[in-house]
Amino acid sequence: QLDRGCALHTAARAGLSSVPTRDVPAERPRAVFHTSESDPAKHTEQHEGRLYSIPLEEVKAVFPHGLPHRFQQQIQTFHEARVMVRRPALELLAYLRSSNLAHPAVRYVIYGERGTGKTMTLCHVVHYCWRQGWLVLHVPDAHLWVKNCKELLQSSYNKDRLDQPLQASVWLKNFKTSNERFLREMKTQKKYTWGKRESTEEGRPLGEVVEQGLARVRSASDAVGVLLREVRLQSHRGSCRLLVAVDSVNALWGQTTLRREDKSPVSPEELTLVHNLRKMLRNDWSGGAIVTTLSQTGSLFKPSSAYTPHELLGKEGFDALDPFVPIPVGNYSAKEFESCYGYYLERKWLQHEKAHTEDGKAELQFLSGSNPRQLDRLAGPL
Amino acid sequence: MATPSAAGLGRRLRAWLPRIMPVRWSRYNPSYLEPEAKKELYQKPLEELTDEEREQMELKAVRPIKAAPPTLSSSVFSDPMISKFTNMMMKSGNKVLARSLMSQTLEAIKRKQLEKYHKAPENEKETIECNPYVIFHQALKNCQPIIGLSNITKGGKTYQVPVPLTDNRKRFLAMKWMITECRENKHRRMMMPEKLSQELLLAFNNEGPVIKKKHVLHKMAEANRAYAHFRWW
Fold first, then answer.
1. Nearest-CA residue of chain B relative to A358?
2. Are A106 and A290 in contact (CB under 8 A)?
3. Which residues, 6+ apart, have CB-to-CB distance to A20 below 8 Å?
């Protein structure tokens, strides 16, 4: 065990020698690729390639939904949540820090090939905004709203649209867990009537709208629409800062696999949830930012080699999101690979004897092509 | 077969072909050599080679080499026992599925053991084995029977006679029992990796249905030891 630590020390030192080690204690080689800075606001280029940990209580509060499944399994196995600080995330954080909230919301689109870390970059940004006290509207995967829907109801508000009670209620429940404070403080601006006997008066806290959506599942999609509208108006007025974080945004402008009872296909704009979310993604409000991710993995009717915004969003989506700031995310650099490999070794995730040798490391790098997802899949059985 | 050596070499090395051909045989001329997958042999400098290895290298310069089978791998992580197990798990040639099931099983074993490791107190941490390969090999070793039974017909009656088993047969029986057990005695909705990881961990601790089957076989052999002299080989 001792020589493993020493070998790691020299190998990692060679990769990270240019980085000043001001927050690293000298005796412990493990901390070369870790950083004790758990506040994303203080992450700079010096922390690039290092892993920072999020306390487990915060993980439950910030990410009731939204973390990738493999990462959740990793949190459970290692009893800690470590996220790597990478260049695209640092770029985004710098833009958010220097953005003028009086101007209309800027749209950022994170794109890249499969398995390069787009969702994790989004989660890093969400954590930063939550820490800064922003109101975070996190839609974990827009693809879940356009496929595999068991119940489609005709919307009572608009005859042409269709409601999705199950998806809406699940999302409302998770939204409530992460934003309790805002739901107590923010008040409605208008009276909303939910049916013959139920209505929410003006000036009531927004938490009541959410409770209404959870209690009466039939009106959950309308509750989501009301919530989005209220939150947008309030942040436009300046009472809070809003972050709209949507993963797999290309689902909103593609095709759906849903059908009505008469087997006619449903297009995305006929769904209430999608319609309201599209209104959020327009840049006609100010006081916040919109960060989105493209994803081919859950997408419908898109080839697996498509990853650029134009291919995945199509003409309609691109025109709707234009102008946006594109943020490409790539595979691991040499330093990031060293850091990830060292972390797996330290957590005893790589158990195979040959995985500790130089040959094993070279083979892992070659087989995965430094792609984060492939490395994770390869290191699983080893 | 355009070998550079004379026709005499070909005639001398052509095997004597019996009239009845066995099912598994090779069409290669005996002059063909096996392919070498390990990199270390080629990276050694000339001085370190022993005489036999030097002879082998010289032979490789003149003799043709057989084609490498798809299962031959130069990866440092390849394990012949794991490959054999994967092949036995494969159905209708779907090696991709069998291999992914195997890797999911190894990952499941590792996760279960790591969770146990992190929860255990300091003094017990060394006793918990987290390496899925060590667990796999030890579990299969624990499942191998020492003695087997064979049907021998004598005087019109068939007896179950205790008989020694070769290493290959022992390994095959252990793997076969493990796979059959996991395919048959599981809940309809349970996934194979989960069930396999459970059974392997039980076998590692010398518990579970496969070990029980081995013990039943041993008891039968012990019960029939009177017929042991029926064996003539």
1. B76
2. yes
3. A46
Angle at A172 between CA A166 and CA A178, to 5 degrees: 145
Task: Give the C-alpha separation, B224 to A335, whole Å.
Answer: 66
Helix, strand, coil tally for chain A in percent (to 5): 50, 15, 35
B135 to chain A, any CB pair closer than 8 A? The answer is: no
Mean pLDDT of B17-41: 83
- Taking an 8 Å cut-off on Cβ atoms, the answer to whether B103 and A380 are in contact is yes
Ordered by start, the domain boundaries in chain A are 45-328, 336-380
Cβ(A277)–Cβ(A144) below 8 Å: no
C-alpha to C-alpha distance for A308 and A295, rounded to whole angstroms: 10
The yes-or-no verdict on residue A28 having pLDDT over 50 is no
Q: Do B133 and A351 touch (CB under 8 A)?
A: yes
- What are φ and ψ of residue A205, in 5° steps? -65, 150
Per-residue confidence at A369, pLDDT binned at 50, 70, 90? very high
A20 pLDDT exceeds 50? no
Identify the structural domains of chain B with CATH numbers, from first to last. Answer: 80-230 (1.10.455.10)
pLDDT of residue B9: 58
User: How far is the C-alpha of A125 from the C-alpha of A131, rounded, in Å?
Assistant: 10
The conformational region for residue A148 under phi > 0 = left, psi -120 to 50 = alpha, else beta, is left
**Phi and psi at residue A128, to the nearest 5°:** -60, -50
Contact between B113 and B130 under an 8 Å Cβ cutoff? The reply is yes
Report the chain B residue with the minimal C-alpha distance to residue A380. Answer: B107
Interchain pair A380, B102: CB under 8 A: no
Q: What is the pLDDT of residues A40-72, one digit of tens each?
A: 888 888 888 889 999 999 999 999 988 999 999
CB A115 within 8 A of CB A296: no
* Average pLDDT score over residue span A70-92: 92
Out of A73, A349, A352, name the one closest to residue B77 (CB): A352
What is the helix (H) or strand (E) element at residue A290, kind and residue range? strand A288-293
Between A281 and B6, residue with greater pLDDT: A281
> Looking up tokens 């020390």, which residue turns up?
A9
**Cβ of B62 under 8 Å from any chain A Cβ?**
no
Contact flag B111-A77 (C-beta cutoff 8 Å): yes
CB contact under 8 A, A351 and B115: no
Domain A45-328: give its CATH code. Answer: 3.40.50.300
Across the range B91-95, mean pLDDT stands at 95
Give, in order, the Cα–Cα distances in Å from B183 to each of A153, A325, B112, B174: 42, 52, 21, 14
Mean pLDDT of B214-225: 94
The tens digit of pLDDT for each residue in A139-150 reads: 999 999 988 888
Between A178 and B19, residue with greater pLDDT:
A178
Residue from the list A79, A349, A352 with its beta carbon closest to the beta carbon of B133: A352
